[in-house]
Amino acid sequence: MVAPKTTYSVLPTWLAKLDFLGLFEKDPFGNLMIVKRLMIMIAGWSTYYRFTAVNNIRITGTEHLHNLPDNGVLFLSNHQTYFADVIAFYHIFCAVKWGYKDTISPPFYLFSPRARSYYVAAAETMKEGGILPRLFSIGGAILVERSWRAQGENVKRNLDASAQDKIGMGLDHGWVVSFPQGTTKPYAPVRKGTAYLIKEHQPIVVPVVINGFRRAFDKKGLRFKKRNTTITVQFKPPMHFLPDESVDSMVARVTTAIGQDIPKEKLTWLGEE
Question: Does domain 8-260 have CATH number 3.40.1130?
Fold first, then answer.
């Protein structure tokens, strides 16, 4: 069940109703929406050529997005680079807002981008990425502290208790992109926290499978590695979960939906080692 769309403003409630242009509207994390739109516009124009001129992006399944509500939608995707994946999602979301289907050309949508979009990101990753990631962080990053990984190494530390609440706030306000594996490593296990998140907030869950980003860009997704690469983004129909469905079942279904089941030939190869 999707909750009614929420609106936040820096103005008092009685005065906010007169803000028809949304000049004083803010997101649940305190960022002015007009600044977010500006940041998305800048990041969009500066990265558009990466997907359409230097490389070739192919998008399928956006018909599943056109009738979605403005909030309460969780996109679950496999992960290949730190930033290029997310930037591509933002291009597509903005294009869908303008009625585009399976394309981001031409980029007129950047004149009025979709600002009610968020993505879950590791706090340490956003701090080390440089100027563009810092700007794009204002555009909708939900920063969380990973309990299982830090500085590229596996660790064990206390769970970030605020993470679920932050993501819930993003869902109440708009669309949220999450990478449930929590790493760019292929076939890494889906974290069980994703299942608990779905159970608690009951969002519309849209699985996504991406490919080609790892070949086209470096690990951060900021530098080119191989030009003229075909990048694919496939949106699948929304998933449905039973109220009493087990966490393990949900994790297994999400793993399959985002194309992260380990292939049989890889399992055989690992077994021979």
Answer: yes
